[in-house]
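Course assignment 3, question 2. Fill in each field.
Student: A.L.
Task: Predict the tertiary structure for the chain below.
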Amino acid sequence: MTSTAGAKNRIIEVSKNGLFQLTQKLFLRDKDHLLVLRDKKSGTGDLPGGRMTEGEFFGDWRISLMREIEEELGTSLTLEIDPEPVFTKKHRVEEGNFPCIILAYRANFLTGEIRLSDEHDYFEWVDLKTYNPKILFSAYMLDAVEFYIQHFK
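Answer field:
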């Protein structure tokens, strides 16, 4: 199957096994508090992280995750990141309707100052014991945050 996409009309060969994207999301904690963000474009909840580029796929995935964290939260943070994903979820990316697999990682905040990129307009450290993610999150991200709270509180 062949399709064209993008402004350059690139030809993309799609195998019968399909085409999908990988997203890495970070559940960043400061003791009993979880960092939540709000996506500026959609107004819904988000977590630090994002989609892996094609060039990053065959490299060290931690580098891809750190690129996203630095882009979204700034470069002054010191974090302790568990290198293995703690769970996976699936969804469809709104832009292009691509199937996507989310790899969820746990991390602890050690030091630094959060400086949001222009992708997000709000952040908060929420208490995991009392936080209701339905206030900010929806769809697949709500599922992921509820799963995390249920299993890793």
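Instructor remarks: The longest strand covers residues 99-111. Residues 60 and 66 are 10 Å apart (CA to CA).
Grade: pending
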